[in-house]
TrEMBL record:
Keyword Lipid metabolism: yes
One Gene Ontology term of the molecular function aspect: isomerase activity
Name by which UniProt lists this protein: Enoyl-CoA isomerase
Keyword Isomerase tagged: yes
Biological pathway: Lipid metabolism; fatty acid beta-oxidation
Family stated for the protein in its record: Belongs to the enoyl-CoA hydratase/isomerase family.
One protein family per Pfam: ECH_1
UniProt keyword list: Fatty acid metabolism, Isomerase, Lipid metabolism
Protein origin, superkingdom: Bacteria
Lineage of origin: Bacteria, Bacillati, Actinomycetota, Actinomycetes, Mycobacteriales
């Protein structure tokens, strides 16, 4: 597929438009609340690979279709990725297979962070778990007043492993990061602005999209090579730390993710009840 055709493709997990040098990428599921299933993880790096190399695109607006940005990882659709490592007495082969799968998920989010075209996220409604991983890979983040966020992984027996822990401390600082990661609590757009996760809060979804588009326009009007250089220089100082964090958490989760607590958390999600964790 040539760069001239990628934006006309019928993407499964995204709505994509390009106009006036700006690409607009909207998550569209197919899971409820734009949950991130296999199609999302397969298409995201390919899509941003095209955006990165297409000279007709100078900036990107990243948002969600419908009222929510994303509910995060689609546990039902992605169950196969977890099944081998959760099996009783999972050995080295199963854990290595899981490690390989996890690194592919990490690489999908990293494709957004490494894109030379600046990415501006416009968040409305819920942005949970994997949704936070994704917006941490953006360059600028805005939210509508109704937006709610959560680093939810701790609530489902997981260590966040595809980018939040690697990138969020550079955005909001270590103290705020630890508080939100260890509690898994929900927090508002106003709190997100207070701690620096988002640059500004708009009245509603229409307004936050307008704000993101306006910033994308300002960026696109600047010299493209200088914009690329700014991203490269700013990313350089933290790229080694991000890479090291991603490798470490992938290895840690491959070794320690399987637990009775994780199985209990997943079962509780399906049964719509509060999990009972026992530290096993």
């Amino acid at each position: 597929m040539t760069d001239q055709a990628w934006n006309d493709r019928d993407w499964t997990a995204f709505d994509v438009t390009v106009a006036d040098d700006i690409a607009e990428v909207a998550l569209k599921g197919p899971g409820k609340g734009n949950a991130m299933g296999p199609d999302f993880w397969r298409e995201l790096p390919e899509l941003f690979g095209h955006i990165d190399t297409d000279p007709a695109v100078l900036a990107v607006v990243l948002t969600g279709t419908g009222p929510h940005f994303s509910y995060g990882l689609d546990l039902v659709a992605m169950g196969g990725t977890l099944s081998s490592v959760l099996a009783d007495n999972a050995k080295a082969a199963a854990r290595t297979e899981f490690l390989d799968s996890l690194r592919k998920l990490q690489a999908a989010i990293t494709a957004v962070a490494d894109c030379r075209k600046p990415v501006i996220a416009a968040v409305s409604g819920w942005c949970i778990g994997g949704g936070v991983d994704l917006i941490c890979a953006a360059d600028v983040r805005y939210a509508s007043a109704d937006a709610k966020f959560s680093i939810r992984e701790v609530k489902v027996g997981m260590v966040a492993d595809v980018g939040t822990f690697a990138r969020l401390p550079f955005i909001i600082g270590d103290g705020h990061m630890r508080e939100l990661a260890l509690t898994g609590r929900d927090f508002s757009a106003a709190h997100a602005e207070k701690i620096g996760l988002v640059n500004a809060v708009a009245d509603d979804q229409e307004a936050v999209l307008a704000q993101a588009r306006a910033t994308a326009r300002e960026i696109a009007d600047n010299p493209p090579l200088v914009v690329h250089g700014i991203k490269a220089v700013l990313d350089h100082t933290r790229s080694a730390a991000v890479h090291d964090s991603l490798r470490y958490v992938a290895a840690w989760n491959s070794a320690f993710l399987p637990s009775e607590d994780l199985q209990e958390a997943i079962t509780a999600v399906f049964e719509k009840r509060k999990p009972e964790f026992k530290g096993r």
